[in-house]
Each structure stands twice: as C-alpha cells, then as structure tokens.
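for the writeup, i need someone to sanity check this before i put it in the appendix. the sequnce is what the collaborator sent (i think, or maybe the updated version? ugh). structure was predicted straight from it, no edits. if anything looks off just tell me and ill rerun, i have time this weekend
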Amino acid sequence: SRELSKPERKFTADITYGMLASGSCLLTDIVDQLHENFQKVNSVERLTRHLNKGTPVKALNSYLSVVRKWVPDDPIIYVDDSDVVKPDGYKFEALGIVRDGSKSTKTKNIYEKGYYVTEACVLTKSDHPVSIFSEIHSSKEKNFTSTNDITFSAMERGAALFKKATFVMDRGYDDNKMFLKLDELEQDYVIRLTAKRKLFFHGKWIPATQLRNQRKGKIKTLLTYKGKRHEAYLSHVKVQITASRKDIYLVLVYGITAHPMMLATNKVIKSKEDVINVAKAYFSRWRIEEYFRCKKQVFHFENFRVRKLAAINALNFYITLGMAFLAH
C-alpha cells in the first residue's frame, strides 16, 4: 500500500490484519479485532466506504510485483472457476444462478443463487499457490460479455507478468478458443481433453478416445492425484488440434481414473522425463482446488455481507493478500 494515501494505507492494514486475526471476512468480525475506540457501527461504515471504491489499481500492481519475486522463471499457472453461493441473498448486486460445486454430483447438478469466480494461481518457489488474478462475476452484470473474456483477461495477466509460463487447465477449458488464445500469447499449456475432442493424426481426423484406446502406457511413474499416490503409466503421440493445426502432443495417463486421461500440450517432448513433467504439471493442478477450499474455510469467503459487486471484488482482493501472506 506504499503508493496509496494515508487513509487507504491504514484501511489496507486494518482489513488484512482483521481478516487474518478473526479468520472471517465479515466486517463486524474484522472490527472486533481492531479494538478501536469508536462505535462498532462507525468502524463498519468506514470499512464499507473504502470497499465500495473497488480494488485500488496501485495496490494491485504493487501486489503483483511482489508475487513475481516469489515465483520461478518458468512458472506453472492454474486457471479455474469456482463458485460463491448465496442461497438466501436477494439484495446483492447482479446476483446470478450458479452450479453449486459442493452439492452437485456427477449425475445431478444443483443450482443456487450466487457468483462465479475466475482464478489464476501461480506456484511459488516453495510450491505454494498464490493468486495473480481473481474476479467475481455474474452474467447479470450490465457490461458482462462472456466468461471466456474473463478467462482471457487472466491469461493476458499471466503472460504480461511472466515471459513464458505453462498454463494448466481442466476439461472445462477444452475449447478451440483457449488453444488459439494461448498460441496468440505464445504460452505453453497442458489442458485435459474431453471425450468429444477430435485430433488430426496421420492425415485424418480421429476421436481422441480412439487414439487413447489404441495405445498402452510405456513409461512408469508415481503421480499424486486427489492427495493419494498412484502408480501410473504414460504414453505420448504427436497430433494436431482443430484450432491451429500446429503440432502438439497428446499425453495419455493410464491407471489412475476409470478411463485414461488425455492431456494436450504444446511443450517440447524429447525424452521420458519431458512426458513425466507434463503429467506432473497437470496433476499439481489439485493445488488450485486446495486454494479455493482454504479461502472458503480460513476466511469463510462465502459468508460476506457487502452487496455491491465492486465491494465484493475489493473484499476478495484483500482475502487474496491474506492468502499470499499465509503462502509466503
């Protein structure tokens, strides 16, 4: 907060300290930890007034420059969506309908009132996920275009911060637009493919699942998936993808899930170690799931009461600062 005015600096210190001390993002809980000689309602009003101004650009830029020092030269960036559910909310700005990830199952989707959160986390030198992009959004916003545009903004920020990074994404991002965007930004990627994906192989388009079923894993390695160590077998084949018709690799992972996993990557593969590193990069993606869970459990993120979207995003920024302190 060095670049900010004195009141803004005091506010930044108060809200980050208050959230870390109380383990909550409720303004009343934060004020309890500040022990100010004012009426509680006045202190809450002061914090609300600052949050309603939105995220200070200077503070965000300063935060990103600090994070850059914690990160290795060729970092891994995870991009994923989460949800913030407000089932009893009705006065929150632009409140939309979201899929509730905690209640939905493979066979049944549960929808509730709430917001989506697009997050991009980078792994530090000490292997901790730290956020470089976090935006709470809703399709009910006036100027909302698409979730893809917000994802592209996250990718652009990652590309601007680091000359070269590896973007690791799950099946929800198996979309030609994502591949084209990452090619345009000249970034590496490891993206898990869906069963619908077709690939160009030996002069014709064939389903990725057909390639998967024709091959066997030849490279043996240990991988951690959902917190457990598994013995996996890997295979790779050079293919082209619909979007760019550039040569990429399909890395196949056998022995962990019911159907072998299919990972698309534009990283150079010259050895067994390269194949293993691609698989490890994808499997380390679980870190962003842990990040979301930690954010919700440590700060009770879904329990916020501020109503304006700018204020909600500002509060989210200060939680991000708190998470970065914990990671560091």
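The CA atoms of residues 26 and 303 lie 7 Å apart. The mean pLDDT is 94.
thx in advance!!
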